[in-house]
Amino acid sequence: MSGLRRFLSQPRSVFGAGFLLLLLLASLCAPLITPYDPHSLEFDPFLPLSAQHWLGTTALGQDIFAQFIYGARLTLLVGAVAGLIATLLSVTFGLAAAYLGGAVDEAINTLINVFLVLPGLPLVIVASAFLRGGGVWPVILVISFTGWAFGARVLRAQALALRERDFVQAAVVAGEGPGRIIFREMLPNMAGLIAANFFGAALYAVLSEASLSFIGVGDVSLVTWGTMLYWAQAKGALLQGAWWWVAMPGLGIALLGTSFALLNFAIDEISNPRLGGGKFRLPPLRRPAQAGAGGNPDALLSIRELNVGYLTPGPTVRAVRDVSLDVREGELLGLAGESGCGKSTLAFAVTRLLDPPGAVLGGSVRLAEHDLLSLSPEELRRVRWKEFSMVFQASMNVLNPVLKIREQVYDAMQAHGVTDKAKLDARARELFDLVGIQASYLDTYPHQLSGGMKQRVVIAIALALEPKLIVMDEPTTALDVVVQRQILQEINDVRRRLGISIIFITHDLSLLVEMSDRVAIMYAGEVVELAPAHQLYAHPAHPYTQQLMNSFPPMTGPRTRRSGIPGKPPSLSAEIVGCPFFERCATRMPGVCDVKPLQTFPVAEGQTAACFLYDPTVSAALKDNALRDSQRAAADLQGEVSREPSRSVNLN
Ligand SMILES: Nc1ncnc2c1ncn2[C@@H]1O[C@H](COP(=O)(O)OP(=O)(O)OP(=O)(O)O)[C@@H](O)[C@H]1O
User: Fold this and answer.
1) What is the pTM of this model?
2) Which residues form the ABC transmembrane type-1 domain (predicted)?
3) What are the CA-CA distances from residue 426 to residues 354, 404, 599 (Å)?
4) Could you write out the three-class secondary structure of 547-566?
5) Does 319 sit in the ligand 1 pocket, CB within 6 Å?
6) Is ligand 1 within 6 A of the CB of residue 163?
7) Local structure of 57: helix, strand or coil
8) What letters, b where the CB count within 10 A reaches 16 and e where it falls short, cover 386-411?
9) Is residue 560 domain-resident?
10) Which value does ipTM take for this structure?
11) Do the domain assignments include residue 559?
């Protein structure tokens, strides 16, 4: 959805922009709306509300409605111009300080600090008093130059944080110039804050102008909402019962502030795609798989017909579709599949860590006696770490840099009632021993540890309360291969020693086959094959699994071509009819696989596949045809390889 459509689809932006636009139009077309001159003193004083004078008249006989409409012109002008100048100054100083750093940063920071300690309104009063005459411009200038410092400080802080972000560093490495980095990489990420700065400064200007006028500083011969308040107070409007003379400019300022705030929210939401919740649009759910959906009552973790989606402004992204899986006690269940197939979404949903716009759309997750999806936040707090824990890819970044490792290891245990210092120390040492780190590292800070050690610390924390289940989503991906191997070995040892169940997620199928008891293969949000690891290795059943296995070159034997899997997975926002792998499948059966609702079929002992090649109701002739075609295609491919001149490989 385009930015404008998203803007128009939100009630708050429609109200905010609607009121502002209405006011702007009314003030610009004032002569068409009211026949009266706001300065004209031609009427009787204090006339009540009537058809001729919608808001009555002032003590001097001016039409209040005309004053309100014409007064909006200068009030809006003050807000817009002072807001713009102050924001421009804030952005320029804030970005220059953050980007240029060094002496420039110090100089700007000092300037910001000086302006921040200057008392705002008294300074405006003094400066305006000196600059009397010249209409509203002195007020605008004074307000602009006294109102930029706070915004500059906030923008500087955000720019400093952004400058360290990976995408900005990548742009620097790619050789982008400072202008492009600031305007293309950094500024769009600051749009929400800049908008907030503008609306804040504009409101400050409107309120300051009103306050200055109210106390008689500034040019009270002009018509603004501020001067209306001044005259109403000076002429005793409330004593005369003419409350609308006070109420109208007051209400105008309040509504203007509200519309600024609403517009600010709306711009923040549009400029930040992560806040774009959008409407809940749920595509129809596919029938749940039948075979294998019954579940094993002895399983420790039982996931049933789980559906998870991302409620984006467009169609819902159905990232996990009717997934049913069991994890047994002490089992290591591997979960593999290509990028974007929904592995992490499944892990986040199971551990209740899914953030909006992600949402569980249906299904259940039971861990021992706990129905995980219906636990209250308090129940979840009690169960998490004690019954299940998780380790994610960049988990090492969760370590607080200013706290010693010991305190961070203690935290989870203390939150669950272990307070005895001796017990905490003994347990921390035991955990470090388990994950292969010397206990002396307990008294270091995270920056003193290597990436591998930090990841081991996180694994130790995940083990601290001996949970029944640990969900590990690519826990070693950020580490080098040697450290990866060591840590995986330790994870496996610990699991065997403590009898913990693990869901282990990775792209690396060969690794998974080596360490798992069973492996589930995901494709386009669905589990397409589930089998004991050795069975999956020796006899992969689903064509997708076969092609995945085929993507890894064998260590021994003749040279064969690794072609990868042609094509790409279907869009997860669309409804998928039949098998999601149909388009890429070498053994597809048109008229069956692209038409029938997908089901899971038993293949061998403990092995199931969501593939119609194992559907007993599909004729053997059709299956034979499909298999023959795919074998012919494979033979053609190998023929091409053998015709290519061979290359020798030097391993030295
Ligand atoms: N916040 C989000 N909003 C919309 N779609 C999302 C969001 N997060 C993930 N997705 C989509 O959900 C799908 C599944 O993503 P997920 O990260 O679970 O896959 P994955 O298999 O873990 O991938 P990887 O191995 O690369 O981490 C992808 O198509 C992704 O684009």
Assistant:
1) 0.68
2) 72-264
3) 34, 17, 51
4) HHHHCCCCCCCCCCCCCCCC
5) yes
6) no
7) strand
8) bbbbbbbbebbeebeeeebbbebbbe
9) no
10) 0.97
11) no
